[in-house]
Amino acid sequence: MLSRVADSLYWLGRYVERAENLARIVEVTRREDLESFRHDPSDSLWKPVLFATCVQEEDKELETPDDPAHFITLDRKNPASIANCIAGARENARVVRDQISEEMWLELNSIHLFLRSDAAERSFHDDPDGLFRRIIRFSIIFQGLTQSTILQDEGWHFSRLGKFIERADKTSRILDTLTFRTGEPSAMALLAVLRSCSGFTAFRSEYRDDNSFRNVASFLFFSVNFPRSIRFCLRRINEALLEISGTSDGFFTNEAERLTGRTLAQINFTDVDQLFKAGLHQSVDELQQNLNDIGQCIFENYVLLPSELRDVVRTEGLQHSLLQQHRQKQQ
Amino acid sequence: MQLKVYHRTEYHYHAPVYDSINEVKLSPRDANGQVCKSCIVSVVPPVKLNPYIDLNGNRAHHFEIPEPHQRLVIEARMRMETAATIKIEDLPYGVEMSSLRELGKRDDCRPFLQSSPYVEVNPEVWREAIDMMDESSDVFQTSYAIMATIFKEYKYDPGATVVTTHANEVVKKRQGVCQDFAHAMVALCRSLTIPARYVSGYFFDATRDNSLRGSEATHAWVEVFVEGHGWIGLDPTNNKVVDDTYIVLATGRDYTDVAPVSGSYYGGGTSKLKVHVAVRRVR
Amino acid sequence: MRLGRDLERVGLDGGAGVDGGPETDDVRRHRDQAVVFISGSVIERDADSHGLRLCCRIQTSANKNQERSGIPEWSASVTAFVWHGVCIEFGHPMFTDYATDGFFDEMFSAKGGQAFPHYAKIRDQIGSMSDEQLREKQRHLDASFLEQGVTFTVYGDGDHGTERIFPFDPLPRVIPADEWQVIEDGLTQRIIALNLFLNDIYHEGKIIKDGIVPEEVVKTAAHYRPEMVGVDVPQNIYMHICGSDLIRDDEGNYLVLEDNGRCPSGASYVLENREAMKRAFPKLYQSLGVRPVGDYPALLRKTLEFLSPRQAGMPVCVLLTPGLYNSAYFEHSFLAKQMGIEIVEGRDLVAVDGYVYMRTTRGLVQVDVIYRRIDDDFLDPTVFRKDSLLGVPGIMEAYLKGNVVLANALGTGVADDKVTYAYVPDMIKYYLDQDPILNNVPTFLGWRKKDRNHMLENLENLVVKAANESGGYGMLMGPSSTKAERAEFAEKIRENPRNYVAQPVVSLSRHPTICPEGIEGRHVDLRPFVLCGEDIEIIPGGLTRVALNKGSLVVNSSQGGGSKDTWVL
To answer: The pTM is what?
Structure first.
């Protein structure tokens, strides 16, 4: 398939997943915030969330906006807001409109128009839970449609790649919020993290009442069956890559596959003790770097021209502009 | 019947040729029950087509290609409305062979009683014709008998003859394709003083199993003159009285007069000829 | 209760159908029909007036004297509408007030007002529908177009653009078989002549040397491409797809208004309109035996594949589009999908070493045939417009080497130029030794002496325009001009004859169209699509465009035009 189309499907999957994850996080954090007794802004629950979800230039202290929930959800000036993620998804869907089903387009178009409208603002003030639920429901429907209405060929695998890379990344960031402050995270914080990943019920069935930092980290990193765990996501990423290139499991034909295989193997053969020994934050950092590299390798392998042609002068301009575009989306 | 014809003649020259001068006879005229609704003749490389009517009343075009070229494509696309001039219940019997003597004086018959480049009226041919005619003294019956005999006894074999094969050889060897059968029949008829002319054209194979021969190429048959009825078409290759499935392109003494495409050029090297004919019925 | 009273007046009871019911005075008086028998009735609440509407089938007796007894002889069965029991309309109510206003009408003959035989079934079926039913049909059709996404995009400022449906009128245009046969022959003749002309002017130029077409007309044409001189194109075909616009004069003769040989658009609407009409009027469609148009994409693909330079294996064909922001993008993506070929933008292609490739996830895939919907100027920034972002650098090199084919070829714009248009009859005469089967709109060229004299003598009846596109010399609308204006123009023509061309005012034919006020005549034209590949194929029918605004002759979608389905029998 056309590289440009593969790229767009990847980002479509990624943006929709991102929007859903953001909606979940904001919904949970908002609710926790309401119930918290603290009113000290410097100690707000939002700081780590903002840290996890927003664009941030290194070494710059992030200022907490007045209404962080609104900032993350609807603010058009925030390039990483839900509204802008949906806009980005829609832009990519437009490019590949002939590849996706009409129903998918209509769903996406309609949530996009809604989020830009005054009705969304009103909903945010009057019935925020309803707003978040609507966004999450859109994502579920969209993913269902993706599963059932488009051809499950290469294009479909690219959109899955985007989805699971995004999901693994977000899960790790949410987990990382627990390392934001020094000291052991509170029971409430742990609960918030689990809820943000919609993992509370699943966690309980695996770990019962043993709500410890260790267990939560273990669950989110290593759970085999929980669909938002990092391990689960990495396995899907691996599968998708292998389907695209038609390679068997255990082998690799490009750098993306090699990195994925290696990262997955690391997760398969590490346990939570190793994780904490190396330091949770460091482990998460390393994972995120790997995910970034995997994303970059996918781009280089499937979208950019083969390496022999990078030297051709004529095409340099094209390559450069594509790279630019990609870097913007990376955030 | 409404018929559509696409006829394409393509020459490939291995080395460029030049100063090519050509004549094509690819435009049917309205006659004998057929009406030409439209006929487009086109040539590549593009040339100015110069029309003229030849001595036999056929519509022809002349064109020249002075510049070097390696490919010559001539296409004819036509839409015809045909009607059978002869009804099966009303075949033109009743004209005696004895009346043929008078026809030699007519201008429109004389050329078709004499020898021509491909056809010679000679004693051997005459003997063959006498055998074929049985005891009939009827012009149409005799002509029909000759046609039927050729169909039955001559072998249809594309590889047996070449474009320059003379009627004498065909009568002797009894094999060939539609061009040869037509030449033979013309020779045989003329030897019995039946005016006969050579016809080039197309026909539509309406049979389900495409059993008729010559429908994928230009076809040749014969017209004999039956006084009081005019020129009657007979197809020795398929043993048919010509009906509304036939389209007449041109008539003449023999192939020389009616060749669909003929010409000359300067240049060495070999050439390859491809001909494609498709006759379709319009609903 | 109103219901009872209404029913009383037409002599029915209770809403059930009554066969052979008694007649009423009201009914009798109307149109002097003898006896009316009412059978089968449906009572609906009329949404607009909150009254009651009785819809029933009314059959009239041929014999005036025959009354309720026995089995009457039914004459034409008509459907009639009763509004509050007041009046009953017979016949074909939708067409009773239709006027041809002196224009040639597609459906109704100017003399006698009878519908042409090939429209009889339409008159009967659609003509006897109610206004409400017809508008309901129209609403359904519009909704289905929106759903399918049959739109074109209108771009405002900085917006993502609004998508609008290309307005569609449900009344089909019908062309009988024998008329179509002539159109087909005429278009075939024309495309052969145009292709020969293009071949000739880019090679020996015999038509110029023989003085038929002046050299400067060709060389100064805006779309003449000197790069193509001496270049041999596959199968010697330059124009693979042509859309020639046809109109009918006031006697009903078909005339060619212009040839569109660059990127004619509208084929996708032809296909979508047909699908919509099949859903809306299935029985009518079937009963007329309309010739299908659905194989256009397959034929187009066959035409493209025929051109491929590749010796072995399946040819790779793509459709090159300017992209999403082009108003015809819907058509591009629709056709690509229907044909089963990839749709690409300039940035998806790359030219290397004289070959063109597609950038895919499997690496570079060589492309053989490009169905390009981008103008010549924007194709290759290294050769033509340097600022073009839509093209592919180096594609011209590959094209001139014969490694990739462009459909339509480069440089076909010469043949659809306003001025060369006037010479098409001469081309047909020269290359084919024939008179045109379809005539041009008479066009007079300032630099031809006979034409010039005619122009000067007939300014009040002609529209005089600038000969070349860069224009700037103004235009004269003869019939609405003043004597002084004409004198001024005559002077201009004498001074600079080669700057002017003239045509008589063209009247287009009209066709019944659903308008806010009812069914009225609106001007239409016809764009059939001609494919020139291994053989010449023409889609039966094509796009009938209709100028929706009252009295307007402008049929373009961007200026108030719509379309109709075209049915060739």
So the answer is: 0.79
